[in-house]
From TrEMBL:
It is found in: Secreted. PROSITE patterns: WSC (PS51212). SMART domains: WSC. Pfam families: Cellulase, WSC. InterPro entries: GH (IPR017853), Glyco_hydro_5 (IPR001547), Glycosyl_hydrolase_5 (IPR050386), WSC_carb-bd (IPR002889). It comes from Tilletiaria anomala (strain ATCC 24038 / CBS 436.72 / UBC 951). Its main location: secreted. Keywords: Cell wall biogenesis/degradation, Glycosidase, Hydrolase, Secreted, Signal. This is glucan 1,3-beta-glucosidase. It catalyses: Successive hydrolysis of beta-D-glucose units from the non-reducing ends of (1->3)-beta-D-glucans, releasing alpha-glucose. Belongs to the glycosyl hydrolase 5 (cellulase A) family.
Length: 741
């Protein structure tokens, strides 16, 4: 995106922390010049223009002297802003007052109470810009404003001076002159059409939203920003230059219960910080990113939490704010640098929002959707945009990343089909956030990231009415995200051939929209059923997913979806997820190891014959081999894995039960379980003891520990079993064994 270079800083200046609120925004609209408080009849702005800072919307009568509009100022009977009262008349207009002051040799003119004209050669020290109040129509021309009580509209024949570093208090708007404003590179960014627009309305709206620069243009357009836009880098055009082929790095910075069932029970334990650090430092490593690149992928989507950028002590995240955000942000920085080192583009996905936009655990809070709740709606949206801006400043503008962050997703999976959160509400959020993120980009960035917006589980075409606002969404600035899963009702009831047909049909369904705006499938998987995706019971149907017939189907299903999501103008895909704790059909890493996914997504075994109506052939074009035909006993290794088991001689009352020991060999590991049971309500109560030998990870130093667990319900371990069990999970994850309760 081209832009005008090196504009001076407008005033007033925002507070020192304004960078974390709402900065300047780069947009493209329908104008060619931006007038910084010049009158349309002056030589400073002779074409469509915008007035920045305080400027009246009226057009004063012709006059010999050039008068600059200084806007609305405070005034009082005890301390007048201008010293000389010239006249008070029922025929007063802006022009008549300016003429009288000019003829009397004054350089300032002011109008008050609709008919009083004041003159002077300086503004008294007590006079100050006012964001509102100059609303009284002039007695001689009702289309003009002539101040009001204790408010005076000021004009001057002296053009205001300004510098790059002028600082004024918030609300002290000053005239800044007339500026050119190219369509492709706005001088002032965020726009908000106002009916019956006046400078007062524009400034009042600007101040309420927290901006420090305002500009009015084309009659009804009001622009906001924090500074005049500098020359911006080119657009990233994510998914346009190259089809996106990627994976989500799920369960890393947004922990999901079903993907890592143990850690989800941690709650507010005293060891939370060390446990989270352990998770952030081990769930994904540089080796994971290297493997992703080696599999022919070009993108990682990194879900992140809003509390990384906008933590609140009123929310339980990060120990109610006790854990410094610098810790997770440090790991996020390492992730981006690792992606850069392995040639992977990054899509940063804001996966959570205050109040939750979906009521899912992955949305930050399970339960009710509270994002648009009346009590906190404005605060929630402001905090979300603040988080996005900070993300942009930290991860897009920093030159060390070399422009590897090609896209930012504004929020993940808002549910917009219930009364709790409407499509129009999210559309309004998208509009503001889109402009805010783009406006947070500075000249130090390599690219302006593509703004990705989720479809809210509505039809893609239902968003046409919003994306048609080309003044808000200029071509090449945004992308729509759709998530396509076939594991939920009713699609989970399809036959294998039905799943294939559904996948192939998505090529045209998505293509009908991607022909007019980019569309990416930001989440999808190989799953076609789900016993219970809210927790670890997904493992209950694992063994049904690995027969020879099923292996062939899963490979065909993968190719059908890839073909559809890359078809024609469609912009590509990002699989969910790179790895999970138990299920291969949700794990790109494990599915690739199994052979359900090829070693490079461009490799095709199900190429359909010419003229076929299907996007894949019914049988593979060459023999396929798979690592196993039964589910491996250990996620990390299918060789030599061991599992502890619990046997019982149940009675109607609590009894002591046997203990069993199993080990890989005498020098590796053993897991010893001893329990006593009470079969009431399927609850096991007792003690679980795990013994690990020298082969355990270095961070797991004790050779043996005893952990009491009471109660253990189903497959869920209560939080008093941590941090020991958390370490054990990773021990099992590394392939040294696993435990079964």
């Amino acid at each position: 995106m081209s832009s005008m270079a090196d504009f001076p800083q407008l005033l007033p200046e925002a507070p020192p922390d304004s960078a974390h609120f709402l900065p300047r925004i780069a947009v493209s609209m329908l104008a060619s010049l931006i007038a910084v408080l010049a009158l349309s009849g002056s030589s400073a702005c002779a074409a469509p223009a915008a007035a920045i800072a305080l400027q009246q919307a009226q057009q004063p009568e012709s006059r010999a002297a050039t008068w600059y509009n200084l806007g609305c100022y405070t005034d009082s009977t005890s301390t007048r802003t201008l010293s000389k009262k010239i006249h008070s008349s029922s025929s007063t207009t802006v022009g008549s007052c300016q003429t009288k002051c000019s003829n009397a040799g004054y350089t300032y003119a002011g109008l008050e109470y609709g008919k009083v004209c004041w003159c002077g050669n300086k503004i008294a020290s007590m006079g100050a810009p006012a964001s509102s109040g100059c609303t009284t129509s002039c007695a001689g021309n009702a289309s003009q404003q002539c101040g009001s009580g204790n408010r005076i509209n000021l004009y001057s024949t002296i053009a205001p001076s300004m510098s790059n570093n002028t600082a004024k208090a918030r609300g002290s708007f000053k005239y800044a002159g007339c500026w050119t404003d190219p369509i492709s590179a706005r001088s002032v960014s965020f726009t908000n059409p106002l009916s019956s627009n006046t400078i007062e309305k524009c400034l009042s709206s600007c101040q309420q939203k927290g901006y420090s620069i305002a500009g009015a243009e084309n009659g009804n357009e009001c622009f906001y920003s924090f500074k005049v836009i500098e020359k911006l880098p080119p657009p990233a055009k994510f998914g346009v230059r190259t089809k996106v082929r990627g994976v989500n790095l799920g369960n890393w910075f947004v922990i999901e219960a079903w993907m890592n069932p143990g850690i989800a029970d941690l709650g507010g334990t005293s060891t939370l910080q060390s446990l989270l650090i352990d998770h952030w430092s081990t769930w994904m490593t540089d080796d994971d990113l290297a493997q992703i690149a080696a599999l022919g992928l070009n993108t990682v989507r990194i879900p992140v939490s809003h509390w990384f950028f906008n933590v609140s002590t009123a929310e339980p995240y990060l120990g109610y704010g006790a854990i410094p955000t610098s810790i997770p942000l440090g790991y996020l920085s390492q992730a981006i640098l690792s992606a850069k080192n392995h040639g992977l583009d990054v899509l940063l996905d804001l996966h959570t929002a205050p109040g939750s936009v979906n009521g899912f655990d992955n949305g930050g809070r399970q339960g009710a959707i509270g994002y648009a709740a009346a009590l906190n709606a404005t605060q929630n949206m402001t905090r979300t945009i603040s988080a996005l801006i900070t993300m942009t400043q930290l991860d897009v503008n920093d030159p060390q990343y070399g422009g590897i962050v090609k896209a930012i997703e504004l929020i993940n999976e808002p549910i917009t089909y219930t009364s709790a959160l409407s499509q129009s509400y999210i559309a309004n959020f998208y509009k503001q956030a889109h402009l805010a993120v783009r406006g947070a980009v500075t000249g130090s960035a390599s690219y302006v990231p593509t703004i990705v917006m989720h479809y809210g589980f509505q039809s893609l075409s239902s968003w046409d009415q919003y994306y048609s606002e080309t003044s808000t969404y200029p071509s090449g600035t945004c992308m729509q995200d759709t998530h396509q899963y076939q594991a939920w009702v009713p699609l989970n009831n399809l036959t294998p051939s039905g799943h294939i047909s559904k996948a192939c049909d998505l090529a045209s369904t998505i293509g009908s929209t991607s022909s007019s705006r980019p569309v990416i499938v930001g989440e999808w998987s190989l799953a076609t059923n789900c016993t219970n995706c809210s927790y670890a019971t997904m493992a209950d149907n694992i063994n049904s997913l690995n027969s020879p017939t099923w292996n062939i189907f899963v490979r065909q299903f993968f190719e059908a979806q890839v073909n559809a999501y890359e078809s024609g103008t469609n912009n590509g895909w990002i699989f969910w997820s790179w790895k999970t704790f138990s299920r291969r059909d949700w794990s790109y890493k494990d599915a690739a190891q199994q052979g359900s996914i090829p070693s490079n997504p461009t490799q095709k075994a199900f190429v359909p014959p010419s003229g076929s109506s299907s996007c894949v052939s019914s049988q593979p074009n060459y023999p396929l081999t798979f690592a196993t035909t039964t589910y491996p006993s250990s996620r990390g290794s299918s060789t030599g894995a061991t599992a502890a088991s619990v046997s019982s001689n149940s009675t109607n009352s609590s009894t002591a039960i046997t203990s069993e020991t199993s080990s890989r060999d005498s020098t590796t590991s053993s897991i010893v379980v001893s329990t006593s049971t009470n079969t009431t309500n399927s609850t096991v109560e007792g003690a679980v003891r795990f013994r690990l030998a020298a082969v355990s990870p270095a961070s797991f130093s004790p050779a043996a520990q005893v952990v009491s667990v009471a109660p253990i319900t189903g497959n869920r371990l209560r939080q008093n079993a941590f941090p020991f069990l958390h370490k054990l999970i990773y021990f099992a994850e590394l392939g040294y064994g696993r435990f079964i309760l």
